[in-house]
Amino acid sequence: MAPPDRAPSLRRVAVIGTGLIGTSIALAARRAGAAVVGWDRDPAVLATAAAGAGLTPAGSLDEGVGGADLVVVATPIGAVPGVVVAALAAAPSAIVTDAASVKTPVIDGVRAQAPAAHLTRFVPGHPMGGSECSGPEHASASVVDGIVWVLAPTPETDPDAVERLRLWVDAIGARPVVMGPDRHDRLVAVVSHLPQVASTTLMGTAADLEAGEADALLLAAGGFRDLTRLAASQPALWSDILVANREQVAAAIDLFVHRLNVLRDLIAAGDAAAVESTFDAAKKARLGLSAKPTVRAGVAVWQVEIPDEPGALARITAVLGEGGVNIEDLQIVHSPEGGRGTVHLTVAADTAGSSADVLSGAGYDPIRLA
After folding, report:
1. Model's pTM, two decimal places?
2. 3-state secondary structure labels for all residues of the chain
3. Looking at 179, 204, 227, which one is the last position of a domain?
4. How many distinct structural domains can be found in the chain?
5. Could you tell me the residue range of the domain that residue 195 belongs to?
6. Each residue's pLDDT tens digit in the chain (370 positions)?
7. Which of 166, 189, 281, 314 is most buried (CB neighbours < 10 A)?
8. Residue pLDDT, tens place only, 335-350
9. Left, alpha or beta for 126 (phi > 0: left; psi -120 to 50: alpha)?
């Protein structure tokens, strides 16, 4: 929770679109002390969000944004420009931002419809949180905690509006990052959109194999389950996102296919050293991603098996906490199978020895991966 001296100055918040991300933002804003009003074109979705998040439901968009200091538009991407334009008009003193995962087409759409004077209050945004689940029933303030929240202002955006929104995003628990819209779209094509494409394609490939080999999916182990998790995401949502960012996504797919072909040729040639080198480079890059910037210079990763039972994950984190070991990153690396699950625990390298001692002393058998 944001401490009192960091409570957001934008205290009256309207959330338009109360699905997973909109309702999660509402919960985080309420946790930080803001009054939140919500509106959704689907009354049932709005009712669920109001019951779960404690936001005040509005009867219309205009009613929802009336008197707001900040309007967050979290609708499907195709509706975002029109809703942003309507919110700018209905809330003449409010900062308006959005949660769309592609920025350039949204900005173009708003520019085409909104008066130039309104564009100073529009701060395009992208909170990079969520999951393959959807709907307000899956919302949580924790969805926002620690996530990167991109602010992608246009040349027309008032710098004061950017700064006020940056402080608000920080206050509700996220990490604001300011960058240009074009750069945002290029980067998310690789780190957000391409993983969805890869996951979906892998799942489709396995499903094709399953058609001829009835036992194929029975052999699916943890790695397969992890890599195909995103394939359970909403098809219509991702279709809209990928098409909206189609040029950047196509370029990312081309690069990915090129690297796959290079690796394929190394494997086909039996070049074990080159294959190992490729894997080693990727492993080092992944370990750098696994930790906070303050500890990226040195981390240790422990693999630990835990029982498949309620409270098992909480116990191991409590053991490390009581032992004075800070967890920099934690992954459940596959679905529990055979009554056990596996977690990867990333700690600072200088605590590798003490963390192993703490885990061993509590009856665990840690295996160091890095």
Report:
1. 0.76
2. CCCHHHCCCCCEEEEECCCHHHHHHHHHHHHCCCEEEEECCCHHHHHHHHHHHCCEECCCHHHHHCCCCEEEECCCHHHHHHHHHHHHHHCCCCEEEECCCCCHHHHHHHHHHCCHHHHHHEECEEECCCCCCCCHHHCCHHHCCCCEEEECCCCCCCHHHHHHHHHHHHHCCCEEEECCHHHHHHHHHHHHHHHHHHHHHHHHHHHHHHHHCCCHHHHCCHHHHHHCHHHHCCHHHHHHHHHHCHHHHHHHHHHHHHHHHHHHHHHHCCCHHHHHHHHHHHHHHHHHHCCCHHHCCCEEEEEEEEECCCCHHHHHHHHHHHCCCCCCEEEEEEEEECCEEEEEEEEEHHHHHHHHHHHHHCCCCCEECC
3. 179
4. 3
5. 185-270
6. 444 444 457 889 999 999 999 999 999 999 999 999 999 999 999 999 999 999 999 999 999 999 999 999 999 999 999 999 999 999 999 999 999 999 999 999 999 999 999 999 999 999 998 766 789 998 888 888 888 999 999 999 999 999 999 999 999 999 999 999 999 999 999 999 999 999 999 999 988 877 767 777 777 766 787 788 889 888 988 999 999 999 999 999 999 999 999 999 999 999 999 999 999 999 888 777 655 554 545 778 888 988 877 888 889 999 999 999 988 877 775 544 445 678 888 888 888 899 999 999 999 999 988 7
7. 189
8. 444 456 788 888 888 8
9. beta
**258 - beta bridge partners?**
none
Asked whether residue 281 is domain-assigned, the answer is: no
Residue 278 in domain:
no
What's the one-letter identity of residue 345?
A: L
Residue with tokens 């939140």: 36
Same domain, 14 and 129: yes
Q: Judge if 193 and 313 occupy the same domain.
A: no
Closest CA to 227 of 251, 262, 203, 255: 203
Q: Are 94 and 87 in contact (CB under 8 A)?
A: yes
